[in-house]
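Tokens in:
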């Protein structure tokens, strides 16, 4: 058997058919499907251990997820991609594979970029699977102004699900380097009238952070909350009084940033022109 090497895989998936990224017994997950396919292609008895740049919840999509794993070094990258995609498509696709010794998809990441997609007004169920349908009109300028409050380093524990190893007194500090709302086109060709896109880039994110922030900022667009309200909640110790989570289908992991030694940013960052 050929010696194993460290591989970087850039993948994309439609989250609607997965119970999230991380493995769960008895559930169809991204790691489960990809791991089984890798075992078949590499002719291994068990799936290899996979490390992802970030964990997405049930229903959350990804265009630029990155995974590291150890596989035999005699697998050609193009052959590996072709065989994997024959097994995992259509709702998961491996976009690129390459050998990068010592690479760790999570530890080596410099930033992550997410997009939350909102559609104003009535829409079909097909749109609802990939966007949050919200009755309009929404004040886009107010939402964008409030998003600017997020820039810089803040304690986001009020906007995150508390990790099991953290207490309510423990801060969850993240550094946001870009946050903006804009009107977007019908990039998914779903026939909706008006898309509002929230793009946010940070060194890392805690669980439910983007969906909670998206819900809060939609409330700003409804004139039920303000940028000042958002600023006052940063550093607060509890989630009390925050709106319910925005639906998972509107959220996509767009890209993950790495230095050139680790292969550079994942492909979606170039497609959407998003980098810090």
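Residues out:
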């Amino acid at each position: 058997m050929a010696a194993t090497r460290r591989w970087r895989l850039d993948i994309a998936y439609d989250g609607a058919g997965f119970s999230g990224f991380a493995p769960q017994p008895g559930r169809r997950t991204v790691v489960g499907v990809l791991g089984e396919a890798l075992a078949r292609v590499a002719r291994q008895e068990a799936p290899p251990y996979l490390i992802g740049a970030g964990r997405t919840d049930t229903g959350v999509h990804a265009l630029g997820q990155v995974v590291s794993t150890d596989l035999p070094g005699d697998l050609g990258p193009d052959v590996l991609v072709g065989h994997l995609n024959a097994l995992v498509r259509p709702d998961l696709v491996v976009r690129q594979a390459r050998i990068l010794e010592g690479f760790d998809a999570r530890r080596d990441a410099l930033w992550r970029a997410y997009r939350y997609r909102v559609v104003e007004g009535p829409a079909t169920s097909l749109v609802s699977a990939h966007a949050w349908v919200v009755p309009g009109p929404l004040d886009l300028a107010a939402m964008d102004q409030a998003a600017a409050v997020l820039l810089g380093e803040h304690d986001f524990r009020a906007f995150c699900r508390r990790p099991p190893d953290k207490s309510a007194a423990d801060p969850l500090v993240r550094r946001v380097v870009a946050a903006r709302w804009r009107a977007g086109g019908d990039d998914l060709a779903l026939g909706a009238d008006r898309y509002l896109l929230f793009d946010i880039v940070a060194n890392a994110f805690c669980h439910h952070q983007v969906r909670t922030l998206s819900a809060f900022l939609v409330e700003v667009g409804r004139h039920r909350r303000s940028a000042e309200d958002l600023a006052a909640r940063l550093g607060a110790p509890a989630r009390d009084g925050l709106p319910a989570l925005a639906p998972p289908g509107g959220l996509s992991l767009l890209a993950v940033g790495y230095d050139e030694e680790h292969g550079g940013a994942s492909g979606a960052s170039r497609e959407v022109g998003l980098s810090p």
